[in-house]
Every structure is written in C-alpha cells, then in structure tokens.
Amino acid sequence: MIAITRYRVADDADFTARIAPVLAAWEAAPGYLGGDLGRCVDDPELWALVTRWEGAGFYRRALGAVRQYFVPLSALAVDEPGAYEVIKPG
C-alpha cells in the first residue's frame, strides 16, 4: 500500500526538522518499504509525504509509534484520504 499525506507549509525549514523524526522512525519500522518527501514545483507551500508499506496494518502500527511527532503535523495536513491499495506495482 502507499500512504500519501499532503501538507500546506509556510516555513519549510521548521517543517523538515519536525518531520525528520517521523521518517527516521519509519525507516526502522516493520513493513516499511520506503518513502519520499517532496515539494510541489508549482506551489512551494504544498508538500507531499509518500510512503510505501507491505500493508495497511504495518502503516497503522507505525503511526502509533510516531504519534508524538506526527499528530502535531496534522494541523498542516490537507484534509483528504491518504491510504491507497496498490493495484499495479511499478
């Protein structure tokens, strides 16, 4: 599965510092396959965190492990669904 969270961020230096512990923890999490943090080229205040997981259960358990970092960032998140089943790999 892939998880996509988009953020509306005015201060990118603060944002990257705040999301760093989440990414570091997830790199060691069971079921984590990789991920990317990107910034929109047309709208520099719009960011996307895209991660790949072996399944939704792994992702949900990993969220619990980073709750203290991830929940405060939710104020910056765009309110939209973010978990997707991969239909065609690659």
TrEMBL record:
| Superkingdom as given in the UniProt entry | Bacteria
Per its record, how is this protein called by name? Antibiotic biosynthesis monooxygenase
